[in-house]
Amino acid sequence: MNRILLSVLLCLGMSVFSFAADKTMNTDVVVVGAGAGGTSAAFAAVDAGLKVILLEKMPALGGSGNYMEGTFAVQSKPQIEDNIIITVEEQFKKTMEFHHWRINAKALNRWLKESSNTIDWIMANGVGITGVKKTSPTSPRGWHMFEGGHGSSLIKAFSERIRAKGGVILTETPAKELIFKNGRVTGVIAEDADGNKITVSAKAVIIATGGFPCNEEMIKKYLNAPYKFAGAEGRMGDGIQMMEKIGVELQNMHVVMQAGLWLYDVPTDIQFGQDGGKAKFVRLLGVLNHPYLLVSPRGERVVDETQPLEFISNAFENVGGQGFIVFDDDTRKEFVEVGLIRGYFGMVQRMTKFTDFDKVFAEGEKTGFAFKANSLNDLAKKTGMDAAVLNTTAATMNKLYEQRYDDQFYKDPTWLRPVKRSPFYALKGSLRMYSTTGGAKINEFFQPMTADDVVIQGLYAIGQDAGGLYGDSYDMNIGPGTASSWAITGGRLAVEHIKSTIKK
């Protein structure tokens, strides 16, 4: 290189080597984010004969897709074989009624109609489905369980097939901005682990970055309570911010995949996991989610505790996002001698006897989320609750138990428990979410639109970057696994539309 030119570049602060490392790539489809939706979209694209580049900001693939246990569908072959009758029309009406028609009806209908084809597709491509379950006595049997108990089987199978068919997967390579010209997206600007710029020109871009559950600023801006996230790191709302920057309208940004109350300030992996494994506090998490007496930070009862966890979450949004379960020594003996009547999402089986309760609870006291006292006044002092309020709440609960009728919130009396016999116990909880669910306003082809319903050509948004599936609350009780299905099926449908519109 000419010495004079080299000197000029150095004076300007330009690195010859970083400049030389910048890249330009061309492809048919670039997918941003390699979770369940993005990986499915990338595989669908290479399977359709399209050139694909899949960008992932984290070192490993899968994100929260690795943790999903199953996915939702109606009228699938596994359901038909097991005599499970749920029609598209039935599920559509139930979902629209639940969300009061505040969601995207056209996209919902198309997704539901295609959900069974998605099950066929993933099973035909190396992903086993071991059965169809429900998450509660009242939910439909639409939760198709992945082989091995989690979605890593899908991520593994699809990523292997992407590479085998010539697709390019780049990890530690976040997309930074969309290339937007004359009303059309024509690619993305990305950056590799060394800070080198990568310009990817594409005929279509699919955004699948998983929402913004890890972004505290966006949580404060959009959500109704300070939810903490459970699941994969790195979901900072990158895709949503990139889309908003070019004029995409956002929809239902306040709604999250509510996970109810979790043990306060306890890392996910030691409270959420299979009983007997690393999650040493999972039985206490099960206790926190028993439908006995849940109270606000002041000590006031706020909800019928038998409600689905999404409604429990809504109630605790109204009191700041935190609360307690309070119980007495008789209830502690029930946990020990009779067992955890409800269990906890298959991680703790129903009727498991909590024989080591005292030992585990003592560890919880040391950690700071468990409290024990010989009087309600002392319990209030330890937890920060108002003693007068807590005593009134306990007295009311005792009355409800004695009359075997809850004339406060009309809870099934089977779940009423008195709070009389000392010592008294409390577990502190705070709201958790699996993910945010608000995102781009889309049409039925998963194309983002402006506030005036003008489609942004060349751009697609799927999964938790696509708003419109949830309008009021997470609806796990009427559709278990809908979020993952929305992502996986959305990726496949976006690719179908891309294939029908782009010119080879």
For the termini, the CA-CA separation is 40 Å
Can you give the helix content as a percent range? 25-40%
In the CATH scheme, the class of the largest domain would be: Alpha Beta
Unreliable stretches, pLDDT < 50, 5 or more residues? 1-20
Q: Would you tell me the structural class of the helices and strands?
A: alpha/beta
Principal-axes geometry comes out as elongated
Radius of gyration, in angstroms, nearest whole number: 25 Å
Mind telling me which CATH architecture of the largest domain this is? 3-Layer(bba) Sandwich
Strands, count: 18
Our estimate of the beta-strand percent is 15-25%
Average pLDDT taken over every residue: 94
By CATH's scheme, which homologous superfamily of the largest domain applies? FAD/NAD(P)-binding domain
The main pleated sheet reads as: 7 strands, mixed
What is the number of helices? Answer: 16
Number of domains: 2
- CATH topology assignment of the largest domain: FAD/NAD(P)-binding domain
3D structure, described in words:
The relative contact order is 0.18. The two termini are 40 Å apart. The chain has two domains: 298 residues, FAD/NAD(P)-binding domain; 177 residues, Succinate dehydrogenase/fumarate reductase flavoprotein, catalytic domain (Flavocytochrome C3, Chain A, domain 1, Alpha-Beta Complex), CATH 3.90.700. α3 links the parallel β1 and β2. Strands 1, 2, 6, 7, 8, 9 and 18 form a seven-stranded mixed sheet that branches. By secondary structure, the chain is an alpha/beta fold. 34% of the residues lie in helices and 19% in strands.
